[in-house]
Amino acid sequence: MRAPVSRPLPALFQPETTPARRVAQHQVNRNLALLLLLLTFACITSFASAYYLFTTRWEARKVPRPWLQADTISQANASTSTDEKFLAYLPHSGFHNQRIAFENALLLAYALRRTLLVPPIRLGNKPIRYVEYDRLSRHHELSAKEGLYHCLQVPPYVSRPPECLQYFESTYLPWDWLVNMTGLGSQQPLVYRPNMAQAWIFKTTGVEPSDVFTLRDSVPYQYRFLDNDSHYSPPQDRYSQDIYFTDLANVQERLLQFGTLFGTSRLRLRDPNNLAYRRRIRQSMMFSNNDLLSVADSIAGFFRGPYVAIHLRTGDGSFKRTANETAKEVWWTLLRDVLGVPPSEKCELEQKFAEESSNNCIPDPACADATLELSSTPTSRPNL
Ligand SMILES: *[C@@H]1O[C@H](CO)[C@@H](O)[C@H](O)[C@H]1NC(C)=O
Ligand SMILES: *[C@@H]1O[C@H](CO)[C@@H](O)[C@H](O)[C@H]1NC(C)=O
Ligand SMILES: *[C@@H]1O[C@H](CO)[C@@H](O)[C@H](O)[C@H]1NC(C)=O
Ligand SMILES: *[C@@H]1O[C@H](CO)[C@@H](O)[C@H](O)[C@H]1NC(C)=O
């Protein structure tokens, strides 16, 4: 059986509309008209504001951007001398890993008498992690900001164009913004790269793409560089391949391109001249940026007496797991080696702090063994 189709009753059978109903009907009509008017108005205003936002989107926010100079100022002039040889490498990971690679690159370029193409420091929450040479090179090419400066002008109330989504995740700064490069710059030729594009190298240095010797790595600890031919890495060494400075000096190509140069023990130096220059490089890495120094000074102003500051990595991986032990070791090293507190007083101090903090008594190994040695704390492990 099918349910009967319900149909509206013929007009004849509909109950007659009473005057009261007519008034109600009238009211409904008026409300509808009002609603329509309102909707039309809303429609027109939203179109108008969308049009306004569209036409004014790139002018609205003029951000002062002194650090943009990082990308423009250091457009060093192309070296026209065809004898000049260059050295480049691919940085990666967080700031201190980039610094370690930079120190190694400075020494290699100095020893090989090549002009170092200095990459910018890349800062941000999402570092470019180590991957094998070709992929790392590609990641650098893709993270360049050329042609994207309009992203800075997009006002905050407009959703960002897709090409700008990652724009604010990182920034490039030239090394000579952060540290004083004057001393090293007088010892060896340096050219500051505004970005990591290969094309910039060829354009600026005049090197032909065919005139490049690339040392491709496929794992982070692959090549170790030694400055003495009768020297070698111990067999248990984590680097898998020794390369001698004399081999690198024989490279005839105008551009010697490395992948990662990260690692505090990547260079195995014997030559006293190189060792001295490496010390000088490391001393030069002290921050000298006036803005940063004034922030540090204002923080220091809060302490009434002299103080010691420690930069301790405890946020990730094995550093996180061993954070408590590391903090303890650093504390004891500080007392013993920096402040010269004798062992007996160290124990008193420890007890005093333990009482002050909580009832959680800190175990004090050095009280039992005053000759506690700082166990080898991994300082050069990359955050890959
Ligand atoms: C590059 O060379 C040109 C002409 O030789 C000179 O005018 C210009 O100032 C140089 N630029 C830099 C950044 O050295
Ligand atoms: C940078 O170092 C050089 C010497 O290496 C020194 O003469 C100069 O005053 C330093 N510059 C600043 C800003 O500290
Ligand atoms: C390499 O080291 C040996 C001994 O350590 C030394 O006698 C020799 O002069 C060094 N060679 C060079 C080129 O520095
Ligand atoms: C380190 O010590 C603190 C306080 O004693 C404790 O709460 C924390 O769980 C410890 N962390 C590790 C990783 O052992």
TrEMBL record:
The keyword Transmembrane helix applies. Keywords: Membrane, Transmembrane, Transmembrane helix. It comes from the Eukaryota. The chain crosses the membrane at residues 32-54. PANTHER family: O-FUCOSYLTRANSFERASE 30. This is O-fucosyltransferase family protein.
